[in-house]
């Protein structure tokens, strides 16, 4: 299962949604319902769910 924009993922035990993916391996994620609070994390630290 590949992570893509819109995927539901878990980061440090919390569910997020993928907002953007960079070619360098970083991913912007946002908590569901809080689209403005975006975090930038390495793709390898995410677990895809659903």
Outline of this structure?
The protein has strands spanning 8-11, 14-21, 26-31, 38-42, 47-49. With 50 residues, it is mainly β.
Verbal overview:
- The protein has 50 residues and is mainly beta.
- The chain has no helices and five strands.
- It has strands spanning 8-11, 14-21, 26-31, 38-42, 47-49.
- The protein has a five-stranded antiparallel β-sheet, with no helix packed on it.
- The model has no long low-confidence stretch (mean pLDDT 91).
Unreliable stretches covering 5 or more consecutive residues: none
Average per-residue pLDDT, rounded, comes to 91
Helix and strand sequence:
EEEEE
Gross morphology is: globular
Helical percentage: under 10%
The amount of beta strand, in percent, is over 45%
Radius of gyration: 9 Å
- Terminal Cα span: 10 Å
What structural class do the secondary elements suggest? mainly beta
How many β-strand runs?
5
Helix tally equals 0
Order of strands, main sheet, comes to 4-3-2-1-5
Biggest sheet: strands, sense, closure?
5 strands, antiparallel
Describe this protein with a few key phrases.
mainly beta, 5-stranded antiparallel beta sheet, 50 residues, single chain, 52% strand
Strands, helices and their partners?
Blueprint: E1 8-11, E2 14-21, E3 26-31, E4 38-42, E5 47-49
Antiparallel strand pairs: 1-2, 1-5, 2-3, 3-4
């Amino acid at each position: 299962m590949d992570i893509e924009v819109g995927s539901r993922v878990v980061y440090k035990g919390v569910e997020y949604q993928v907002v953007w993916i960079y070619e360098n391996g970083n991913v912007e994620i946002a908590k569901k319902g809080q689209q403005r609070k975006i975090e930038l994390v390495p793709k390898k630290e995410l677990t895809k769910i659903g």
